[in-house]
Amino acid sequence: MLKSKLSTVFFTFILILILSVPAFAASTYLVDKQGDQEHPVVSGDIVVYEDHADGKPGIFMYDFSTEKTKRIGSTSSSQSAPHTDGDYVVWIDNSFDVQSINLYSIATEETTKLTSVGSEKRSPKVDYPWVVWSEYKDNSWDIYAYNISTKATKKVAKHNYNYLRKELDSDGNRRAHYDGQVGVTISGDKIVWTDFRNQKWDLYGADLNTGVEFSVIVGQRDQYSPFLEGERLVYQDNREFQSNIYLYDFKTEKSTLICGAAKDQEYPTISGNVIAWQDFRSQRWDIYGYDLNSGKEMVFSNKQYHQTYPSIDGNRLVFMDNSKSREDISTVNLTSELVVPTDLDSISGIKIIVNGRLLAADVSPIMENGRVLIPVRAVSEALGVNVDWKSDSQKIILSGRGKNVELTIGSKLATINGTSQDLDVPAMLTQGRTLVPLRFVSQAFGAAVNWDGNQQLVEISL
Fold first, then answer.
1. Could you tell me where the beta strands, DSSP code E, fall in 108-161?
2. Residue 6: enclosing H or E segment and its boundaries?
3. pLDDT by residue (tens digit) across 334-373?
4. What is the 3-state secondary structure (H, E, C) of 319-340?
5. Top-confidence residue, 263 or 176
6. Is the confidence at residue 13, as pLDDT, over 60?
7. Is the Cβ–Cβ distance between 131 and 104 less than 8 Å?
8. What is the number of other CB atoms lying within 10 angstroms of the CB of residue 47?
9. Which of 82, 326, 351, 461 has the greatest count of CB atoms below 10 A from its CB?
10. Are residues 332 and 348 part of one domain?
11. Same domain (yes/no): 363, 292
12. Pairing mode of beta strands 457-461, 351-354
């Protein structure tokens, strides 16, 4: 009898323990090979990362649409810090101990060296037409920008030299040169970076077109690792003597605590209404997330070994995975993780639901002459079609499901399998993103579209 009761108690304890463990998403290996693969960045169908398999880091690119991997960096030098906007890739190239910023066009497969001076450089980012990075000159780190269209380079932010620390510390050791502006992030024409002008790390920003500089977050303690998408900025904040995740909204000019769990949270990233970061609450680095629509925290990857450096775009999440005692690249498809919130009225702006799932877009859809326009990569992923952007001709080509759809920025003429079609509104560029007419593109690929004006809701079913 006692044995039976003990068995029942033990079973109940195990059941409670199982139910108390948060559910996490199923991840799969994207790059699984000997040697380390590090610092992945995803944009649309493209993932770029460092590959250390040969002892000398190189830049590789994986394409979800073709499921193929290729090396895009030189084999004669080491490369690091890759970044992509889905059309271009940038990285730091170390040739003969001279650092340069290299730009690669995915469409033309051509590489261009943007800098020739051998000063130290960090954190290059690309969002057409801009490339930005931090560069060490004249005893400080400053922010530089290159325009792909005009091929002009300019200094965006310069450190206040009155606040620079001396090169040597009190013990006579050379300081690591962090004074200045570093850790830059970009979205459209806006950039944000970490800035040491106040003898601590704050967040400042600038408009690349006007050159106007502005403060973003100036607090009592340090703020790190900013990541900008549209009008939203996520970052690490050390105000509680540990690193927590905050969200800043440029429209409301307010910051919101996203995660204040015990232990540190680092390297936040955001896409649409989903935020992801690496989290140390389990005494190892796991990948956590937060759905702004539902207000719920999620566990994207929770394994025995470290998972770090998440990158998210649309419904794709990639990160470094140390499960095999080396750094591989894993991915999670977030489609099944993001549900439609019960209170749609709590979400501002136009909402888009595809097959019962709320669509995550990095730029909010807009209404133009009674037609909804949405970022092309968001709608292409939702419809399961490929997108190709021709920057020279300003043309968007969508292909899949037996259809080939072509649109041109500013033109009311499109083609479906070569047959011309008139549009009520043309495709357009806004905040550095290409927006296309949602109803036209969806119906071109056989989807049914319903518009609810009262809820500002578009429902698409395939």
1. 111-113, 121-127, 130-137, 140-147, 152-157
2. helix 2-20
3. 865 555 555 666 666 788 887 666 776 667 788 888 888 8
4. EEECCCCCCEEEEEEHHHCCCC
5. 263
6. no
7. no
8. 25
9. 82
10. no
11. no
12. parallel
- How many other CB atoms are there within 10 angstroms of residue 65's CB atom? 15
Distance CA 462, CA 367 (A): 23
Residues of the domain holding 353:
344-461
The percent of residues in the chain predicted with pLDDT above 90, rounded, is 45
In DSSP notation, 186-210 reads EETTEEEEEE-TTSS-EEEEEETTT
**Encoding tokens for residue 215?**
């403060």
Enter the pTM of the model.
0.72
The residue written with tokens 């261009």 in the block is: 112
3-state secondary structure of 262: coil
d(CA 250, CA 230): 9
Rounded to whole angstroms, the Cα distance separating 423 from 372 reads 12
pLDDT top residue among 40 and 449: 40
Average pLDDT over residues 241-262: 92
Omega prior to 129 cis, within 30 of 0:
yes
**CA separation for the pair 213, 157 (Å, rounded):** 8
Comparing 159 with 449, which gets the higher pLDDT?
449
- Give me the number of domains the chain comprises: 2
**CA–CA gap between residue 131 and residue 144 (Å, rounded):** 8
